[in-house]
Structures are given as structure tokens and as C-alpha cells.
Design brief:
alpha+beta, five-stranded antiparallel sheet, 102 residues, 5 strands
């Protein structure tokens, strides 16, 4: 197993434990009667920028479409997890994102 795979799996383990992701997971699980839960897709670029890993958190319980709910990004140099805010087209810290969601 390569070093990046171990690092990416560790980040996915962290993201899946975020309270916001857990809440979505419970909703998906309930609506699918326990058949599906939240899914995470990882890409090695974000909007053409290779300085980030993109963790797309969503719902793939529909066979025809994937519903993206959150975009978390991992800065490769700093190892900081941030959230991509589609409204402002920018990344923000988890702390600021959580404040904004209240």
C-alpha cells in the first residue's frame, strides 16, 4: 500500500466522523432503509489545481445520479482539511464553515 493511500484513507476516516457527515449518513441510511450510507469519492485535483486532494461526500443511493453534498479538500503541503464553498467559489476552514452553517 502506498504512502498516499494510507494518508488518504486516514483523511477519509476523519471526514466520515465529522458531525455534518454523520448527520447526512443517518438521513441516507434512514431513507434507504439501511441499504445505503454516505459515500466519499477522492480526486487528486481540485478545479484543475493539483495542490489539493478533493473529497466529495455525497449520496449514491440513486442508480442514475450521484448527489454531491460536501466538498472537503486536503491541502497537500499543509495537510489542512478545508471546505470548498460553492457560493463564494473558495475554500474556507472547517471552523469558519461550521460557524457559517449555524
Amino acid at each position: 500500500m502506498c504512502k498516499n493511500t494510507v494518508r488518504l484513507n486516514a483523511v477519509m476516516d476523519m471526514i466520515i466522523k465529522f458531525r455534518e457527515v454523520q448527520a447526512i449518513n443517518r438521513q441516507i441510511n434512514k431513507s434507504t432503509k439501511g441499504v445505503h450510507g454516505v459515500s466519499i469519492m477522492v480526486r487528486d485535483e481540485f478545479n484543475g489545481d493539483f495542490a489539493y486532494y478533493d473529497f466529495r461526500v455525497g449520496d449514491n443511493s440513486n442508480d442514475l445520479i450521484y448527489y454531491n453534498i460536501f466538498d472537503f479538500i486536503l491541502e497537500k503541503k499543509t495537510e489542512e482539511i478545508k471546505v470548498y464553498d460553492t457560493v463564494s467559489d473558495s475554500s474556507i476552514s472547517l471552523k469558519d464553515w461550521r460557524k457559517k452553517r449555524r
